[in-house]
Design goal:
With 393 residues, the protein is an alpha/beta fold. It has 2 domains: 56 residues, no CATH class; 312 residues, Metallo-dependent phosphatases (Purple Acid Phosphatase, chain A, domain 2, 4-Layer Sandwich). The strands form 3 sheets. Strands 1, 7, 8, 9, 10, 11, 12, 13 and 14 form a 9-stranded mixed sheet that branches. A 9-stranded mixed sheet has the order 6-5-4-3-2-17-18-19-20, with no helix packed on it. Strands 15-16 form a two-stranded antiparallel sheet. Bound molecules: fe (ii) ion. The site of fe (ii) ion has 6 residues, from helix 5. Fe (ii) ion binds next to helix 5.
Length: 393
């Protein structure tokens, strides 16, 4: 059997956000694999089955079929709270978003992150084109997959693309391979959200993907807003005790969707919900997300009174956008607009990932690119007596 065809970055240059288009692209990619294997006489039949019947089946199933059941942590059993190991003084975490494109670029980013030997690695969502089982397999599970697994484990969030196939492969195929090693056993990730913590920091992965896609008619009447479902809110309240004034650890939220943006539609609803959960104990947080394929850092921005230091790191594996923001460039702290090349006459930037190093109350972040160059660094410090998070200059 011939070697399976990898994808090329230029296949993704003008990829849109409609489910229809993304299903078509997945079918086309599968047809390409079959065509590489098949003799000429089989190609027409394969074309019909995969491209027309296969496409219609998968598309209609995803649009009108049932979404995968929402998974959450039942009280008293799995908590979804994972501990950073105490073994080393510094815990190193690789954050990759919009990375799973199965291209030479995503392979390279995966290899660089792996070479730095992360303790943990986290994907902030979007497996292209539709989070199908084969796409989860090719990016994360196959022996040739380039996902950089952390020494202690890996965790994953869902984006909108995983939900284009109802989240089936995200929940059934990907999550059972995600989790954290604790002692001799591995605690697998049982829901689309999680917390990874130590005595100074909490990294809270939020699921905004599940509520980012709706049924065809409902989508028009009530556009999806990426809200946190009540099961997730209960977990934040009753498991993480987010409003506990005695817990003043630094908080880093991770999500696929942006709570605000200077470039595209943002989804402030989760920030509004979190703001209410914090109650009187509102304090600045770091929040890192993807969805937009670029590297941007913003000044502190309040969404529903929640002060957010926002970082968009969606430049993991897709053609990187480098266009200028429409308005208000003053609120940008950094934005990597370097041109790497042109693909189909579109200028694209440098892929990359975020490298977080936690040492007690200190957090150093390096934003590394596809050549393993550090593009930007920043340092943060949390005072766990007051809960104040400040940037160290
Ligand atoms: Fe997305």
């Amino acid at each position: 059997m011939a070697e399976k065809t990898k994808r090329e970055l230029n296949e993704y240059v003008d990829v849109g956000h409609s489910e229809l288009e993304n299903h078509l692209r997945t079918q086309n990619a599968q047809l390409q694999n079959v065509a590489d294997d098949a003799d000429a006489s089989r190609k027409l039949t394969d074309f019909l089955w995969l491209n027309i019947f296969g496409f219609a089946y998968h598309y209609l199933k995803s649009r009108f079929g049932l979404r995968h059941a929402y998974q959450y942590y039942p009280v008293g059993e799995e908590t979804g709270v994972f501990k950073m190991p105490l073994e080393n003084q510094t815990t190193q975490i690789a954050l990759l978003s919009d990375w799973a494109s199965d291209t030479p670029e995503s392979d390279r980013i995966g290899a660089i992150a792996a070479a730095h030997k992360p303790d943990f690695s986290i994907h902030l969502g979007d497996i292209y084109f539709v989070g199908a089982p084969s796409e989860v397999h090719d990016n994360f599970i196959s022996p040739k997959a380039s996902w950089p697994r952390g020494k202690w484990g890996s965790l994953a969030l869902s984006g909108n693309h995983e939900m284009y196939s109802n989240g089936d492969a995200f929940f059934k195929t990907l999550l059972p391979t995600m989790g954290v090693r604790q002692g001799d056993s591995v605690s697998t990730q049982k829901a689309g959200f999680f917390c990874l913590e130590n005595e100074y920091w909490r990294i809270i992965g939020l699921d905004t993907g599940y509520t980012s896609v709706e049924r065809p008619l409902i989508e028009i009447l009530s556009p999806p807003n990426c809200h946190l479902r009540k099961e997730q809110l209960n977990w934040l309240k009753n498991q993480l005790h987010l409003s506990n004034p005695n817990d003043r650890r630094g908080i880093i939220f991770l999500s696929h969707h942006p709570p605000f943006s200077l470039f595209r539609k943002a989804f402030p609803k989760p920030a509004q919900q979190l703001s209410q959960l914090f109650g009187d104990f509102l304090r600045p947080v770091l929040w890192m997300w993807g969805h937009e394929h670029r590297l941007v850092g913003y000044q502190e921005t309040k969404v529903a009174k929640l002060p957010i230091h926002g970082r968009c790191i969606g430049h993991g594996g897709m053609p990187v956008e480098i266009d200028a923001p429409k308005i208000d460039t003053d609120s940008i702290v950094f934005y990597d607009q370097r041109k790497r090349k042109s693909l189909r006459r579109v200028d694209v930037g440098y892929n990359g990932f975020a490298w977080l190093k936690f040492t007690n109350e200190k957090l150093d972040i390096e934003y590394r690119d596809i050549e393993d160059k550090i593009v930007v660094t920043e340092s943060w410090e949390v005072d766990i007596k007051t809960g104040i998070l400040k940037k160290v200059l």
